[in-house]
Amino acid sequence: MTDQHLLRWNDAIMTDSAPGDETDALIARCLAGEQRAYVELYDYYSGLIYRLSYSLLGDREDAEEVLQDSFEYAFRRLDHFDARKSAFKTWLYRIAVSRCRNKRRRKWLPSFSLSAFDGDEPRDPAATPPDERALLSEQQREVWAAVSDLSPKLREVAILRYYGGLPYAEIGQVLDIPPKTAESRMRLAHKALRERLSDIVE
After folding, report:
1. Are the CB atoms for 59 and 159 separated by under 8 Å?
2. To 10 degrees, what angle do helices 168-175 and 88-106 make?
3. Could you say which of 112, 164, 192, 193 would form a disulfide bridge with 160 (CB–CB 3.0 to 4.6 Å)?
4. pLDDT tens digits for 51-61?
5. Which residue, among 116, 103, 22, 23, has the nearest Cα to 57 in the 3D structure?
6. CB burial class (10 A; 0-12, 13-18, 19+) of residue 104?
7. Which positions ≥6 away from 48 have C-beta within 8 Å?
């Protein structure tokens, strides 16, 4: 078993978003004042933003708060989104990461759980999820524990790279850093994870 396999966890993670053309059409409908379009846009992307927030904060209530704050801001600033500069998903990631950082600064979170990544999130992120922690294998638990031990900067890059599947250019956009810096942080994160997981990584 390779470290890449261990860290990818699930090919479906953080990929539930609308196709680009459909997103563009929804945004146009939102800007035209169609309330239903806001609901559809939220439905497409809320699970993705919730999982990102939960993975960075490790707390359900905090993740839900970041989710709501992120969309409230995004909808208020929707007319400022420029599809020529970034994908809508990337723009949302940037908003959510910024709010996660603010939340983390206000509250020390000593524990870190990513059990919500095991399986699909319900469309309503406030709904009670099943207790998936018991379904995790011992190796998966070790992987999540290793991710939790990374510094916040390395954890952000690792989450966006491994679980979000973002290229370094997009990670740079999300975190407001040069792509080379994102790549450098990813190398450090990967090295730290390989060392921590040396017993289970071939």
Report:
1. no
2. 50
3. 164
4. 999 888 888 89
5. 103
6. middle
7. 14, 15, 16, 17, 89, 92
